Amino acid sequence: MTTSLLKKQSFPLQITLILCFITVFCVPLFAQKNRFEVYIKKGDACFKIKDYKEAAKYFGKAIKENNRQVSAWQKRANALKRLKKYKDALKDYTEVIRLEPNNGQHYNDRAECWLGLKKNEGACTDLEKAFQLGVKSAKPLSKKLGCAWYKALANAPCPVKNNIITDISVEAFTGAVVISKGIAYEKMIFSPKGSAGFWASAELGAEQEVLIRVSKPQNFCLDPDDNITLGCALRILGPGQKEVSNQKDIYHKTSFSLMPADSLKSLVVSIRSNLFPQKNVIYTVELRFYDKRGRGELLITLPMCISEQSPLAKNAITTHNALGMGVHSSAIGIEVRSLLLQDSKKQVVRWLAPEQAHCSLQFVGFVTPKSKTTTIIRWVDAFGQIVKEEKGFLDTKSTDSLFEFSTKGLKKGVYTTWIKLKEQNSERTFGAVLPIEIK
User: Fold this and answer.
1) What does the pLDDT look like over 249-259, one tens digit per residue?
2) Does 239 lie in the same domain as 135?
3) Which secondary structure element, helix H or strand E, spans residue 19, and what is its range?
């Protein structure tokens, strides 16, 4: 009976012990947490109305309740700094850094206290640490103070040690050869100014202007303030590679010469027809974007021909077509329905093998010329150099005009073939660009 009675009393006894534990240990913790939050809220309210003295008192009381909370130390340090009590604020920021050593903003805040105490050396040390932890705003102040670490950063060599070729491509519409030396980009757009379309072939009308836009360029060498220093050169070569024009720095004294890296969306250059002294002459345009601080370059080489100014050139509709096989064309008054690349056996081919040393380009549906028509074919290699050029004439009596060209002498590689047709006694023209690979 006695044992049974003890069992009945054991359950209430356990409840009593649990309640005692909660009363002795848990209730004070809840009360402490509640007081901490109350003091923080009161301190925030005082700080908001710029009563920094009272704010510092409340944050101090919060610290007494819980000295392991970073926010309380940081808030009191901010209030003391506003009161210009830099020595006391410095101690609080030091405690904040001890609790959170990997937060760069804490070092940046403590640097302001060092400046208030006229101790620039301490400020520079904290600003360097803040920058290392990702606080970009530390650099302008370090530059102003003349910190040794910033000077070393400004004089440090660019990480781009050489300008080796990293990419070579051919722009299908114009035949432009693009060579990248370290500089990458998303895409390249050739478009007539004032038009939403694309510029096709290498024919530029009189009084016309074409825009070359390089979208989202990357891999530039940044200065300590994350700025890019850009340059752009434009060189035009005439027949016989004779230099016609050479502008060494188009971007000089423009917004492109020095700009923040995060604001660079595209590189833009305008090419006007008045840069070319003669009409119906094939020129080579060499455009070069370069990183002045580093050694990165983007080289663009393309053929260009200016049409004569005439009533027909003004009024006739200029057509732009993709004729298949990577061929793009532009025409004024001349209609070409299709363009076939044939081998010696009259078989349509896409790529030329070494044994196909002779091939034909046949224009089907070409309007019968009323006068003698000149043909020019130019071969440009992957480096933008003209390796071969042939001239000829079309038969004025044939409806489907046919002309031939030879690939003899061309080494293995990718070439851009640029074709130009021009009636001698009219303004009717046709231009086409196509890539060809000799294997």
Assistant:
1) 888 776 666 66
2) no
3) helix 2-21
